[in-house]
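User: Sequence recovery, please. Input:
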């Protein structure tokens, strides 16, 4: 008899767990969306200012260079962050192995970018790509030494701390790019802005989390076992999103790439500002439910519904007002973006 009330109480408590998890996921999504809103606000101001200081050729040149690095990144991504977030056994060896994998991968990528730089410049018939790629290779090495500890923020649904982690480098990138664009009036302003952001990201990763990495491969099997699907997904997403830049750049040059990239960025705002942030929070929430033996099916279905309700009208709206947005925001030299 004494056991029955306790059993009844436990039964009443169980249904609250998914609701609590759903609330945490929703709050996490709100923080990530807030970050994207801040980032996009800075991005819009940046685009409006830079489109009047720099030519489409400058944007296209940097887009080609970053696409080359992005291609190597897509073909070498191992998804260690997602594996750590999803892991049932969170421990020091997991982070040490993740750091070691990230470092080795970054060093290999940097070497490939540096070696391929002259050939890429020859392929696109633009020698300006060579020094840009050399600098991006150096930044890739720096990225490999970043602290992996902050992945714990996302694992524990601490998106408020992740907001700060992302906001500081983004703000510094914005300020640096605008300042150097006013001074240089060429594509190097965009490249320097990228460099400032990467350096800030490196410093923030060690400032915000006490973990200090050590080389280790003790949890290699656990990380690689999950990473195959992440690698395959990354390649498909890259082919979908970045392949047009290669085709257009080879056929029509950097100026056309700049115009296409600007148009693509504006057209895909509902995806980049809503779907990606919500998905980032949903993955962390789903991983937490998986570790606790819960189901997130109901929360997932509601999230898909919310995405559809927001994104479909937003996409139609952007298309409808393109003729007004482009001349006002970008100026008359960017009308092809419509």
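Assistant: Recovered sequence (338 residues):
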């Amino acid at each position: 008899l004494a056991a029955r009330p306790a059993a009844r109480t436990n039964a009443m408590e169980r249904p609250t767990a998914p609701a609590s998890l759903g609330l945490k996921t929703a709050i996490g999504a709100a923080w990530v969306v807030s970050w994207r809103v801040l980032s996009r606000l800075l991005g819009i101001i940046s685009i409006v200012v830079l489109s009047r200081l720099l030519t489409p050729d400058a944007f296209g040149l940097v887009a080609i260079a970053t696409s080359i690095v992005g291609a190597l990144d897509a073909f070498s991504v191992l998804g260690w962050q997602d594996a750590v977030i999803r892991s049932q056994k969170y421990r020091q060896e997991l982070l040490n192995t993740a750091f070691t994998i990230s470092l080795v991968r970054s060093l290999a990528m940097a070497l490939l970018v540096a070696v391929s730089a002259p050939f890429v410049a020859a392929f696109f018939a633009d020698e300006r790509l060579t020094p840009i790629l050399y600098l991006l290779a150096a930044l890739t090495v720096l990225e490999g030494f970043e602290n992996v500890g902050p992945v714990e923020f996302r694992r524990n649904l601490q998106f408020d701390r992740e907001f700060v982690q992302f906001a500081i480098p983004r703000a510094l990138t914005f300020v640096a790019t605008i300042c150097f664009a006013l001074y240089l009036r060429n594509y190097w302003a965009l490249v320097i802005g990228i460099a400032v952001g990467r350096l800030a990201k490196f410093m923030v990763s060690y400032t915000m989390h006490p973990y200090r990495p050590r080389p280790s491969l003790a949890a290699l099997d656990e990380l690689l076992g999950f990473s195959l699907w992440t690698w395959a997904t990354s390649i498909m997403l890259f082919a979908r999103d970045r392949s047009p830049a290669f085709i257009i750049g080879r056929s029509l040059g950097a100026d056309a790439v700049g115009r296409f990239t600007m148009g693509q960025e504006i057209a895909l705002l509902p995806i980049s500002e809503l779907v990606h942030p919500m998905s980032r929070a949903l993955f962390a929430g789903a991983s937490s439910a998986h570790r606790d033996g819960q189901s997130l099916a109901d929360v997932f279905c509601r999230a898909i519904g919310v995405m559809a309700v927001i994104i479909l009208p937003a996409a139609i709206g952007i298309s409808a007002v393109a003729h007004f947005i482009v001349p006002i925001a970008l100026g008359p030299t960017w009308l092809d973006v419509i």
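Confidence is low (pLDDT under 50) at residues 1-19.
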